[in-house]
Fold this sequence. Notes:
Elements: H1 5-12, H2 16-19, H3 23-44, H4 52-63, H5 71-87, H6 95-122, H7 133-165, H8 170-188, H9 200-220, H10 222-237
Helix pairs in contact: 3-5, 3-7, 3-10, 4-7, 6-10, 7-8, 7-9, 7-10, 8-9, 9-10
Amino acid sequence: MPGDDGADRQIADSSYWSVSRTPLTSLVFTLPLVAAYEGGVLVLGRGTARNGADVWLRTLLDQAGFGEYFLLPVLTVVGLLAWHHVEHDRWQWSGSVLAGMAVECGFWAVILQGIARAQDRFWPLAAGMGESIMTRFVAFCGAGLYEEVLFRLLLLPALAWCCRRLGAGPTAAAVQAVIGSSLLFSLAHYVGPLGDTFDPYSFTFRFLAGGFFAVLFSLRGFGIAAGSHAAYDMLVGLA
């Protein structure tokens, strides 16, 4: 019957793999990252532990005349809710699915750590971190959240759309968007006052990590990409 497609889809797509990809589940799953990062920045002071993607997004909002501090996390929440509405998914979430997502994010974080160790075998480089554990934890939450918002939730679909408009087929556009967003993701770490000093080792790994998270986002949704990103940073940065 016309008009029942949404209901049929909700019944058919009730598995963990489908539910965990929905924007509402992604939102609920990433809310702890929002709370930990925004709360941590307020506790530590707004001038510390800031993530570069967070700063760029807030700068864009400031230039548009919207300088309220909590507008960015509010827009992130509202954007995911609007996306969920457009997708016509169920307005429900499951605690067991969220628990499964946490385990899955840990799995992908270990896989990415394995990629990093494989790179180390062929291209060894030692690096240290001088910040406190609290500062690093807050920064890692912000990286998992706002870098995925900027580079995967916003930039990746925009690049794919542009590639399609320029004549690329669906598969070619997706591949080009992954490569382009990964290059920009890696390069962004060396831009501005919060940027690192450029070196080929970190650039190469960040490009690979950008591609890793882009594929995760495309196949498993925003929540898994953001959670895996934060989990990886914590796995290697807090150990």
